Automatic annotation (TrEMBL):
Protein name: Ig-like domain-containing protein
PROSITE patterns tied to this protein: IG_LIKE
Gene3D superfamilies: Immunoglobulins (2.60.40.10)
InterPro entries given in the database record: Ig-like_dom (IPR007110), Ig-like_dom_sf (IPR036179), Ig-like_fold (IPR013783)
Domain Ig-like residue range list: 25-134
Annotated source species: Eumeta variegata (Bagworm moth)
Pfam families in alphabetical order: Ig_3
Matches recorded under PANTHER family: OBSCURIN (PTHR23278:SF19), SIDESTEP PROTEIN (PTHR23278)
Matching SUPFAM superfamilies: Immunoglobulin
Domain of life: Eukaryota
Amino acid sequence: MANALTCRTLLDEVRHEIYETYIFPRLVPSASEHKPVCKNNATIIVGAALEEATRVLCEVDAYPAPKNFQWMLNNSMGTKELDTLAYAIHRVLYQQANYTAVNGRSILSYTPTSEVDYGTLSCRATNLAGQQIDACHYTFAAGGATGPAGELQLA
């Protein structure tokens, strides 16, 4: 939502008037808006073998829906932000070639290629009310199991 300001302009002495409306973005969130929070507060353990493509789902509760997500990997080598091409942001009524329309979700597609690609994954969303304070956490461990159809199993 936005705030509107209507201005009146007097054109001549005969009282010809023009009304113009300007829309300004709201700088303070309304009472119904809230920053994103994880739908699942527990740390989830995700297992994957080297060179095994894995999808990790980050779901948040937020109003309005998140505009973007940030994924980070933390391990003994330090902390790094993951490339935005590695994940999709799912939004209401928004569709693009690589993802479908779902609200408040980001799915990371991640393939570990060496031992340094394991560690703690974190996901943080941002919406118009602000950035998520406490990130969602996932322990990404080596040696994950896959089911017969290749579906990821959470340990």
